[in-house]
Amino acid sequence: MKSTYLIIGIIILIGLSLISLLTGVTNISFLTFMTDSDTRDILFISRLPRTMALLLAGSAMSVAGLIMQLLTQNRFIEPSLAGTTQSASLGLLLVMVFVPEATIFFKMTIASLFALVGTALFMIILRKIVLKSALIVPLVGIMLGSVISAVTIFIAMYYGLLQSLWAWIYGGDFSGVLQGRYELLWLVGFLTLFACWVADSFTVAGMGREFAINVGLNYRSVMLMGLTVIALVTGIVISVVGLLPFIGLIVPNLISMIMGDNVRKTIPYVCIFGAGLVLVCDIIGRIVIAPFEIPASTILGGIGAIIFLYLLIKQAKYAKH
Hints:
This protein is mainly α. It has helices spanning about 1-20, 30-35, 35-70, 85-100, 105-130, 135-160, 160-170, 185-195, 200-205, 210-215, 220-240, 245-260, 265-285, 295-315. It has one domain: ABC transporter involved in vitamin B12 uptake, BtuC, CATH 1.10.3470. The chain has 14 helices and no strands. Helix 4 packs antiparallel against helix 5 (about 105-130), helix 8 (about 185-195) runs antiparallel to helix 11 (about 220-240) and helix 12 (about 245-260) packs across helix 13. This is ABC-type enterochelin transport system, permease component. One of its GO terms (biological process) is siderophore-iron import into cell.
């Protein structure tokens, strides 16, 4: 039966992808595609890269959130609530200040390194404090992220780059994704497949350090591998399309509430649901004030905040793995 659900999910995702390809200022039909070269250019240069970017970024950030929840043994955490995205933003800003002509690959590398350092700092802080409630973990992450964001904003204001930083990182706008700019996101696609392949290791690590060591798992290596995947995914997505708030939090939780906690079985659904949710937000953003657009991150932030509050208020006992 679950394989039926997976097939249905894939069919829905294909349908949303087709809607994404056909939604925009220029109408695309089979006839115009066959007879008009401009229509083909719009499809292959703009619409198709945008749809692929939505699919890759949505699924990768959802899986990154799932891995972070397993490694911290807490359901209320994701990269944007653990200082990871804020650290990546700081790295990206420093590149804009000191190496403004750097390539997107160099920006992605520095952003990923800063994301890795920020995530490691968050994990070290968690080990140093006594966690009397599962809700303390996201609070610690929010405070750490706020400190890093404050430093980032100060540097951006000092160098007159606040508007550029805001547009680059917090825009979350896929309208600027074109052929030649989104291809780096294929790396997060490979990282997502890698996470699916080693899902069992993350599951065991999520049961605690003592349990993982007792069953023969190299706990330290799995933690380093998980942190690296989270940092790379966050750094790449931030560099290419900007921030996607809450998706790494709400998607794994909703899938877990419906299908349980077997990561090996649920991770394909996390990928599909995450990609579909970002697609829906982007399509809504393109329709409501057409021909103008609302960034997908704005709609995603509103939906994510409502679900996050619901989980905090109604599901406190559910928070801890």
